[in-house]
Amino acid sequence: MTVRFAVLGAGRIGKVHARAVSGNSAAKLVAVADAMAPAAEALAAEYGCEVRAIEAIEAASDIDAVVICTPTDTHSDLIERFVKAGKAVFCEKPVDLSVARVKECLKVVEAEKGRLMVGFNRRFDPHFGAVRKAIDDGSLGEVEMVTIVSRDPGAPPISYIERSGGIFRDMTIHDFDMARFLLGEEPVAVTAHAAVLTDKAIGEAGDYDSVNVMLETASGKQCVISNSRRATYGYDQRVEVLGSKGMAAAENQREVSIEVATGAGFTRPPLLDFFMNRYPAAYSAEIAAFIDAIGSGAPMSPSGEDGLLALALADAALKSVKEGRKVQVSEITG
Amino acid sequence: MTVRFAVLGAGRIGKVHARAVSGNSAAKLVAVADAMAPAAEALAAEYGCEVRAIEAIEAASDIDAVVICTPTDTHSDLIERFVKAGKAVFCEKPVDLSVARVKECLKVVEAEKGRLMVGFNRRFDPHFGAVRKAIDDGSLGEVEMVTIVSRDPGAPPISYIERSGGIFRDMTIHDFDMARFLLGEEPVAVTAHAAVLTDKAIGEAGDYDSVNVMLETASGKQCVISNSRRATYGYDQRVEVLGSKGMAAAENQREVSIEVATGAGFTRPPLLDFFMNRYPAAYSAEIAAFIDAIGSGAPMSPSGEDGLLALALADAALKSVKEGRKVQVSEITG
Amino acid sequence: MTVRFAVLGAGRIGKVHARAVSGNSAAKLVAVADAMAPAAEALAAEYGCEVRAIEAIEAASDIDAVVICTPTDTHSDLIERFVKAGKAVFCEKPVDLSVARVKECLKVVEAEKGRLMVGFNRRFDPHFGAVRKAIDDGSLGEVEMVTIVSRDPGAPPISYIERSGGIFRDMTIHDFDMARFLLGEEPVAVTAHAAVLTDKAIGEAGDYDSVNVMLETASGKQCVISNSRRATYGYDQRVEVLGSKGMAAAENQREVSIEVATGAGFTRPPLLDFFMNRYPAAYSAEIAAFIDAIGSGAPMSPSGEDGLLALALADAALKSVKEGRKVQVSEITG
Amino acid sequence: MTVRFAVLGAGRIGKVHARAVSGNSAAKLVAVADAMAPAAEALAAEYGCEVRAIEAIEAASDIDAVVICTPTDTHSDLIERFVKAGKAVFCEKPVDLSVARVKECLKVVEAEKGRLMVGFNRRFDPHFGAVRKAIDDGSLGEVEMVTIVSRDPGAPPISYIERSGGIFRDMTIHDFDMARFLLGEEPVAVTAHAAVLTDKAIGEAGDYDSVNVMLETASGKQCVISNSRRATYGYDQRVEVLGSKGMAAAENQREVSIEVATGAGFTRPPLLDFFMNRYPAAYSAEIAAFIDAIGSGAPMSPSGEDGLLALALADAALKSVKEGRKVQVSEITG
């Protein structure tokens, strides 16, 4: 069976998914849509597919699944429309910046018995996957502490930051999902510190660029997340899990693994410097998992609920910063 | 000039310092004291020095400096006695478990114009020292975030834990001092999470075994400390500093640097598994710095004040756990 | 311009090249040929191309280039036929097992002004390429010593070994080419040791499984190559260059970069264990370079001459083993 | 029992051994001798021992053992004198630069039932020792191939080189001994390449600065040794053993284990740059082994025979370079 796809949104992340869909032998990219005609046309030309309007895709009988890569504020509406249209829906994170709106949207999905997968690509990274495997096979014993360091090479434009919902909902949200993926137990309380250290303009836009978060589960398992919007040495993406029997850690990735030694020392190249070259395997595996779940009818994972819970942790972290206290996740999820 | 020493306390840490003093060509170990005569005699025999009573050492004209390695609850009294006796005093951390008592003690030291150095050995570790050097020489730019992972191979006996003042004052205190050493700015607020994950008996003794702490300075610099009382793979001691220009990290230490590769993978040995074999160079350098400061008259570092501030951070962390909120250090130091 | 390809030979390496051609947006895989019809059909089905006979491909007007992946003893004949047919030819190493036959074949190529590229894929590996770049940009100063370790996870079947021309012509030949790629000067003398250590059957087939080779250029630059047909820990592929100013080394590659630490030590996974998963990027870049050279008319590299010289080094190494002496390359090339 | 020592020769290596002897609690450094009175006096002052003439040490009843650190051409004479005087003798490598003279000397030692240990310090390096342990405990299976890279940070003065016996007898000799230590079987044939690449003056002095050597045992086990007199990045000392079950490798050593990451990459410091700071633990363990053997009466190891065999391999390597052929060790040892 070949799953016939439309990609909604032909921006940066739309391109990433168009590539992943095209490279999957069980998928066919049929159409792309974008409010900006030239963007849609360029992407369609690159992959030899059609440009169609959203409405046409909704009504199309030759499209089984959509990948939503449009601006965040359109996500929940599009999810609702496309589950109602009977399409399988893959939506980039986040479902929405409002927990209430996400809940509403997920109710629609449920009522329609819709199929929804949310795009937390890092779960599909082979390195992080191998850490999870070390947990699952018992090598680490009981998980006790998860440590996540996630630093971007540089901040996005201020215009992006202003619409992003803030660092916790835009950047840390990936780490919240990774924490849930690795802890094996739901976080119940969150404490966070946040500061503006790399660029004052980020602070003027009402956001932070340097944050640390601690999570805690009901049984006391701990997680620490450390984020910065700037790392001169590349895209720093590390996870580490301490368990009763041992520890597993995923190392950073480089384009080439060489070392040059001189009187100044032994130097390895900087890290890969962008999510698009750091995570191509993850994006491919993510789409493959979506296709598999469509085929098998198995539950989609990460689910809409996963999207909701990561967002709730982001809201809790922000509340913790604002109020200077530990915040229960239940305060957010109600 | 040779500095003539007495070591007070012939237990584990007393032995460490006796070895460091004996190995220093500018020092002479003249006497040891211990309430347990056999312990004192064994140590004296090993280094060819005398056993003397505390009072005799206080009065001795052939002793210039003392190293206080007795139980914590005797530290502040002994500091006061020996500065009054005109000896240079090196005291193992902590000065006392009570901030109030430490303040009182430091007033006595000041009034006597006494010379006091507090034993935060890790400042003298060559690896951590090299990280500090990378800060000082500007390689990292402005310091933004310090990350400290410190995990013991295993917990001390419950009897020790009961008298330890708790994990923050006993174990994390080293990391609080390291944070201050690396941040280059005083932490003003502390938030902490704490749990009992490795051994219920530790919880029954009123303590924790797994803690995470976030610190923040007035200008917003961040620090995260992560502790566990158990690491099956050895004594895990890492520091990492992120700055505006780059990052520096100190790696863990092993007894031997080999790798064995088989079908099961590439395996390096576990880490050194004890503070006594992880930090011998640090203990030697620490005593050397004490001797240098005695000779030069320069300020002792780490000072009594450093001891006080690390203890205040420990108290703040504990208060944060108890009250579920961010605690200002000024709430502790008054 | 799209270059239209036929792949001759649908075996293991034929598949590798079919994948590389198909994945290149400037290429189109038109046909495959194989004496074994089912193999050709399977490959054609996988990539949606035709099965054709060699003769049909030779005569086809819709094919610009061929990739020769047939058994070694057909390589030189096919090269001659296809350059005469006006096709650009990419031939897997070696051109032939006989230096004399290679020379004859290259004369035909030259007479026909044919375009021939020989498949030494490792030159296109990004890691080895980065080492070469460190030479070219002057970071290492004058090259003095090249060290190549190349160990297969396991030996090929004895039936393969019997037709392979022996380890020097089958396996070390890649390292001879790499040595030439990195030395920047032609080797003039060769000395080798060889033994049978992993499997007696290899010796009974008249071959060796464990060899070491030293090369030397006219100006005295040195190279050491170390090969084994068995490495339990994976496909061990390292190069290292020592120069007057420094050293560059390419590290081995793994599927995932994680480390698991327990009381038994810190373990990273074994290496990638097959040339097909170790070198996919190299095979893609190699075909891309072939396509570029077709388009630009620039000299093909590695050339037929490169194929000849690597083979000559292999012959010289074998002669050195047989005669227990240093062999001049000129003794082979005449 | 305390072994009472004299150190003969107060130069660089004499100081190394004086320190090792002084730091051993089972030893007492009683006297030093040196033709240069100021050197002897300085060393005696540093360790609080006497200066004595060689003859006085020979006759002394308060000296049990001597460490010979005088110029090479005096070694064999001194060994003979001191075994005749009934002292246990530790002699720095080499026993002599002439195989014939070494044989003669060892006959005297045997006739006198003398105790002689030869100084191949690297056998006592904990990292190399751990590799040997991985062989001994069966982790690697049958040893097949040993790879030794040994590069000095820089060449010694030409005046030293002129009296050194050449790079094979002066530098590679350590690697020959290491090869024997790791192969577990005696090398029977040697082939070598040699060049002058780092400094023409070395060639004018009749020596080489860049050499590679291949060794082979009776059963076909292989070893490769690669030497250079220059490595800008420090003292490069690596050994690697490939066996039927796996591989073990010892990594290089640094003063501090930190990494600094910037936009230019991840940089670790250069290696330790001198044998005196790279091998202090080895020198201490070596003297401890000597003392142990004196006490227990067990055979000394490395023995005079070990010194002879390493020298024979050096002579064979030189002969191989001169004659451009594989040389049987029996051609040298007769």
From TrEMBL, chains A, B, C, D:
Supply the EC number(s). 1.1.1.18
Q: Does the keyword 4Fe-4S apply?
A: no
- GO MF assignments: inositol 2-dehydrogenase (NAD+) activity; nucleotide binding
What top-level class of enzyme does the UniProt entry assign? oxidoreductase
Gene Ontology cellular component annotations, sorted alphabetically:
cytoplasm
UniProt cross-references to Pfam families, sorted A to Z = GFO_IDH_MocA, GFO_IDH_MocA_C3
- What are the GFO/IDH/MocA-like oxidoreductase domain coordinates in residue numbering? 130-248
Q: What InterPro entries does this protein's entry cite?
A: Gfo/Idh/MocA-like_OxRdtase_N, GFO_IDH_MocA-like_dom, Myo_inos_IolG, NAD(P)-bd_dom_sf
Taxonomically, the superkingdom here is: Bacteria
Similarity comment: family membership: Belongs to the Gfo/Idh/MocA family.
Quote the NCBIfam families the UniProt record gives: myo_inos_iolG
Q: What is this protein called?
A: Inositol 2-dehydrogenase
Which species is this UniProt entry from? Answer: Amaricoccus solimangrovi
Organism ancestry = Bacteria, Pseudomonadati, Pseudomonadota, Alphaproteobacteria, Rhodobacterales
